[in-house]
Amino acid sequence: MSDKKYDSILLVAFGGPTPGCCQKYETCPSEAYCFVEGIVGTAESQLPRIKDVSSHYIELGGFSPFNELTFQQARALENALKNRNVALPVYTGFRHWNPYLKDVVAEMAQKGHQQILGIIMAPHQSKVSWEWYIQAVQKGIDALPEDARPQIDYLAPWWKHEGYIGAIAALMLTACNGTLENATPVFTAHAIPQAAAKTSPYTQQFAETTAKVAEKLGKTEFALAYQSQAENTPVAWTQPDINDWIREQKDTDVQTIVVAPIGFLCEHVEVLYDLDIEAKATAAECGIEFIRASTVGNHPKFINMLAALACEKLL
């Protein structure tokens, strides 16, 4: 198989705080503080949210495993491609932390890469989870000298691909020791404003993913819920919230739930705090057993899917 059409691959991801002061302030408020501030902005009205969300990181040790786990996905993808006789370097850039996408794009251009295949590390499409990533990459490209600007194409979205579906199903079975007979599957994705949901396929794609995983598991009873929405805002967000859904099951026959955060591709604060701490506590209050399936991470089914789709683009 020829790999001449593309000379490199770029994983495009969100990012999370890692050790290393950005030196934005004379006295460092914490990497987590600056990370959250970089997402929501510096307006005084955002200060409570910055403090609240950054405290979640502090409770988990101050940092996020997101970046390292994404690097692991990149290395796994590189190896999977080599197994298909395709030798392409796989780079990783983040929208909200080092290494920033603009810097990685500049590095790739400096190394002579001119035909990049981008893989957006988000399974469901919305302005925030798809379009803004593409804009961030393009901004980095446009900042380069005109004769050094690489071309970039993107892998098509894969929210209902067998590799992604199969990885989720396998991890849910692992979490439940091989059987979901007595557990109700609950699939989660990050909440987005309802206004954004109306102008994107995000919620439809999320629903299609859940249906396909449930079908693969042979489950007809399942639920989908949203998580990690901003609190105390006038904006309406996608519903139901995972905690609200759990509370609604208190007086039903639901005794065990297995939560699969399928809108997230690796473990980070929205999973480790919002689910493993907050949602788990809500379940305990309601007398419901809480089991959490792992994110797809570098599961072979998921990585091999990305490798196969990348190879299809090379033909």
Briefly characterize the structure.
With 315 residues, this protein is of the alpha/beta class. It has twelve helices and eight strands.
Topology:
Blueprint: E1 8-13, H1 31-40, H2 47-59, H3 66-82, E2 90-94, H4 101-110, E3 115-120, H5 127-142, E4 151-154, H6 162-175, E5 184-190, H7 194-197, H8 202-217, E6 223-227, H9 242-248, E7 256-260, H10 269-272, H11 274-285, E8 289-292, H12 300-314
Parallel strand pairs: 1-2, 1-3, 3-4, 5-6, 5-7, 7-8
Provide tags for this entry:
12 helices; about 325 residues; alpha/beta; four-stranded parallel sheet
What is the H-and-E element order? EHHHEHEHEHEHHEHEHHEH
Global morphology: globular
How many angstroms does the end-to-end distance come to? Answer: 8 Å
Structural class: alpha/beta
Instruction: Tell how many strands the DSSP assignment holds.
Output: 8
**Sequence stretches where pLDDT stays below 50 over 5 or more residues:** none
Strand order of the largest sheet: 2-1-3-4
> How much helix, percentage-wise, in residues?
40-55%
Count of helical regions? 12
What share of residues are in beta strands? 5-15%
- The mean pLDDT is 94
Largest sheet: 4 strands, parallel
User: What is the C-alpha radius of gyration, as a whole number of Å?
Assistant: 20 Å
